[in-house]
Design brief:
The protein has helices spanning 29-35, 82-85, 89-92, 117-124, and strands at 8-9, 14-19, 22-27, 38-42, 49-50, 55-61, 65-69, 74-79, 101-105. With 125 residues, the chain is an alpha+beta fold. It starts with 7 loop residues before the first strand and ends with a helix.
């Protein structure tokens, strides 16, 4: 299982990369492995301001549909356009081309409250 040290994580298996006050968010390698083959990603919250832990979309695998939870409060500014035609990118490259959204974070200090790689690894092991 791949858990990059430069990212932050949630107990709901989302990862966060932060640059300034812009965060890129996706689901972890563990989560995509548990879900199996992803066939559809539904995110209709672009432009919306959401609170931490609110549902920002869903990911559909062959056997299940799972909610996606926003790690921190902010506004969704971009949805990965590649996922519409290639949702399997979430399986093949969850930390790269399989990212899901970009958002403007209201308070970047909230990122520090998320799990680091060691804490997330302990959670899923």
């Amino acid at each position: 299982m791949n858990v990059p040290a430069n990212l932050r994580y949630t107990k709901d298996h989302e990862w966060v990369s932060i640059e300034g006050n812009t965060a890129t968010i996706g689901i972890t390698d563990f989560a995509q492995g548990e879900l199996g083959d992803i066939v559809y990603v539904d995110i209709a919250t672009k432009g919306k301001r959401l609170a931490a832990e609110e549902v920002f979309g869903t990911v559909e695998a062959v056997k299940t549909v799972s909610d996606l939870f926003l790690p921190v409060k902010g506004t969704i500014i971009e949805v990965n356009p590649a996922l519409e035609a290639q949702p399997e990118l979430v399986n093949s490259d969850p930390y790269g081309d399989g990212w899901m959204i970009k958002m403007t974070v209201d308070n970047t200090e909230d990122i520090g409250a998320l799990l680091d790689a060691a804490a997330y690894s302990a959670l899923v092991s």
